Amino acid sequence: MILDELNKVFCRVFHAKDLVISLHSDASSLEGWDSLTHVALVSETEKHFKITFSFNEMMQFRNVGDLVNAIEKHLQQ
């Protein structure tokens, strides 16, 4: 499941083994999720799933659910 794999990425980026994300997780619900962390999350997500997001896609990510939807779209291509 994409969310489970993405959770591994979040744990690495946030240096928190016990972090659990949901589709509704966003910058306001996760301490330390700022613009620099966002860039790191996107980069690590691209590496993990072997995909590349466009700039427009990245600007539309408002929460983990948006990120999961974008990953699904890329994996289907």
Your description of this structure?
The protein has 77 residues and is an all-alpha fold. The chain has a single domain (2-76), classed as Non-ribosomal Peptide Synthetase Peptidyl Carrier Protein, Chain A, CATH 1.10.1200.10. Helices cover 61% and strands 0% of the residues. It has helices at 2-14, 35-49, 55-60, 64-76. The longest helix is centred in the middle third of the chain and has 15 residues, at 35-49. The two termini are 17 Å apart. The relative contact order is 0.19. The mean pLDDT is 96.
Oligomer: single chain
Helix content: 55-70%
Q: What string gives the helices and strands in order?
A: HHHH
* CA gyration radius, whole angstroms: 11 Å
Number of helices: 4
Strand content: under 5%
The general outline is globular
Class by SSE composition: mainly alpha
Given as residue ranges, the uncertain stretches (5+ residues, pLDDT < 50) are none
Task: State the end-to-end CA separation.
Answer: 17 Å
CATH fold-level assignment: Non-ribosomal Peptide Synthetase Peptidyl Carrier Protein, Chain A
Q: How many strands in all?
A: 0
Largest sheet: none
- Give the CATH H-level superfamily: ACP-like
Average pLDDT value? 96
Report the top-level CATH class.
Mainly Alpha
Q: Please give the CATH architecture.
A: Orthogonal Bundle
Write the layout of secondary structure elements.
Layout: H1 2-14, H2 35-49, H3 55-60, H4 64-76
Helix pairs in contact: 1-2
Question: How is this structure best summarized?
Answer:
The chain is mostly helical and 77 residues long. The protein has helices at residues 2-14, 35-49, 55-60, 64-76. The chain has one domain (2-76): ACP-like (Non-ribosomal Peptide Synthetase Peptidyl Carrier Protein, Chain A, Orthogonal Bundle), CATH 1.10.1200.
